[in-house]
Structures are given as C-alpha cells and as structure tokens.
C-alpha cells in the first residue's frame, strides 16, 4: 500500500490536524461582520420596500387601465416586463422592483438563517485553543507559522470571544475534567509514555489525545496519525469515573450508618451528620453535573 506523504507545513498541515481532531477545528465567527452584512441587507430591503410602495401607489392612480389593475391582476403586472409593453402604457418599475426585492430577500433570509445557526456553535475550550497554538508554534510538533493577517487569530485576545469550535470539548463534571486535563497527563508522563508515542494534551468528546515531548523510541505512529500526538480512548476514563461514582453512592450511606452507630453522644452525632451531608453535597458537585437545585433536593431528602 502506498504511503501517504505528510501534508506540507502551513494551511495543509493545520487543516490535517483540524480534520483529525475536530475539537481543534476552531474558526472565527466574524459576528460583527455578519451583523453588519445583515444590517446592510436590511437597509437595502427597507429602501426597496419604500420604492415598491411608491410605484404601487402611482400605478394605482394611473389613467392607464392596465397599470391601474396591477394591484389586482398579477398577470397584467408581470406582463409589464414584456417586450414592447411600454408602447401600450405599461410601466415595468413596480414588477422589476419586486423582482429585485425577491432576490434580495433570498440573500437576506439565507444570511439571517446562517447567522442564527452560527450563534448555536459553542466557543472552544480555552485549553484546546492554548494547545492548538502551542502545537502550531512548536517546531517539534506542528511547526505551523502562517504569514498573513490571520496568523494571530488564535492568539489575539481581541478575537478570543469570536472563536467557535465545530465540535467543542464538553466535560460534564469536575471529576471527569480533572481526569482528562490533569490525571491523564500525569498518567502518561509516569507510565503511559512507555506504551505510546506522544506530545500535548488534547481533549475530544470521543478521545483524549496526549502530547508530551518525548523520545518515541522504535514506536511508529499510524499512517493517518500525527506523530506528535497519541490518542487515549475516553472510555477508560469515563468507566473509571462511573466506577468511582457508583462505589461512593453505595458506600457513603453505609459509612454514615456505621459511623453514627459507634457514636452514642447526640451532639457528636449531629456534628458528624452535618459533616456527612456536606461531604455528600461535595461529592454530588464534584462527581456529577448536578445543579444547585438538584444538590439541595438530594441533601434535603
């Protein structure tokens, strides 16, 4: 099988990275420009609408029988554009203006709809932006240095709020976030690098990729994988999180009963109970994505 040559440095290599890791497909929304475009289209349509109303009022008062029925006979209005129609007193301005409005409305509606869809795209995880810029700027990794005015889009603080990700990284709870963003990197640093090629921590909904500059040894990455990255499936992390959560949910009530059983004094029991409730609330906050109302209801119960 023919080997696929690596993409050239620059846009091709950056596009390859974004295609392989969709959480890195980070682009500008151009929200202000899109809003300005909508405003200009809206202004054009408003002017055309006013012009159409003026032409319609003029035709309505015309002494020409055909023009006078434009507002009630569509075919007569449409025929005003026929060749030679002006010789019979027709005026094509009203229908021509409406055709201009029709085309402009299509452009406006499409832009409005696309803008509404753009607003649904989520902002990228700040760590993903940082990792992308680190990868681009490292000669050992991406070595992607763009030369045009778009070269600092991902680093410019003025455009950070305008960035969107095609598949933003989502982490529902604090434990999973810690496992993916901190524990996974430590795991790779101490143990995982013996088994995998690597370079920089990257998060994805479907996998966790790690990257710590390291000697790859005799290991070779897959043909379609960036040699600067190693991918860890998030199934193991999610499974570990579920295991911890399940064990705690089973053990905490039993632990509370056992502790209270060996404490005869009522004041101490109440103090311990308060501490256990606080610990339970902390576990809900740390191990799940429960909101304040859910935590309050669970602890009250």
Automatic annotation (TrEMBL):
It comes from the Eukaryota. The keyword Disulfide bond does not apply. It holds the Pfam family DUF6594. The chain crosses the membrane at residues 244-263, 270-287. Keywords: Membrane, Transmembrane, Transmembrane helix. InterPro entries: DUF6594. Residues 11-301 form the DUF6594 domain. This is DUF6594 domain-containing protein. The lineage of its organism: Eukaryota, Fungi, Dikarya, Ascomycota, Pezizomycotina.
């Amino acid at each position: 099988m023919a080997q696929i040559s690596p993409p050239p440095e620059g846009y091709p290599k950056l596009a390859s990275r974004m295609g392989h890791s969709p959480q890195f497909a980070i682009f500008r929304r151009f929200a202000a420009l899109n809003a300005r475009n909508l405003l200009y289209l809206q202004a054009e349509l408003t002017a055309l609408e006013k012009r159409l109303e003026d032409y319609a009022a003029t035709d309505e008062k015309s002494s020409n029988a055909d023009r006078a029925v434009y507002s009630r006979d569509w075919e007569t209005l449409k025929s005003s554009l026929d060749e030679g129609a002006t010789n019979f007193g027709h005026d094509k301005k009203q229908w021509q203006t409406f055709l201009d409005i029709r085309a402009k409305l299509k452009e406006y509606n499409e832009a409005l709809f696309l803008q509404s869809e753009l607003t649904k795209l989520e902002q990228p995880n700040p760590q993903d932006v940082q990792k992308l810029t680190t990868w681009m700027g490292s000669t050992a990794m991406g070595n992607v240095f763009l030369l045009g005015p778009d070269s600092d889009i991902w680093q410019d603080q003025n455009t950070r709020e305008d960035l969107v990700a095609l598949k933003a990284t989502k982490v529902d709870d604090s434990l999973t976030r810690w496992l993916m963003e901190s524990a996974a990197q430590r795991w790779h640093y101490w143990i995982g690098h013996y088994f995998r090629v690597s370079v920089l921590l990257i998060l994805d909904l479907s996998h966790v990729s790690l990257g710590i500059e390291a000697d790859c040894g005799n290991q070779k990455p897959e043909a379609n994988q960036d040699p600067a990255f190693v991918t860890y499936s998030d199934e193991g992390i999610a499974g570990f999180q579920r295991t911890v959560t399940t064990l705690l949910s089973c053990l905490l009530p039993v632990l509370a009963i056992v502790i209270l059983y060996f404490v005869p004094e009522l004041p101490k029991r109440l103090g311990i109970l308060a501490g256990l409730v606080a610990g339970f609330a902390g576990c809900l906050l740390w191990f799940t994505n429960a909101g304040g109302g859910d935590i309050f209801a669970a602890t009250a119960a």
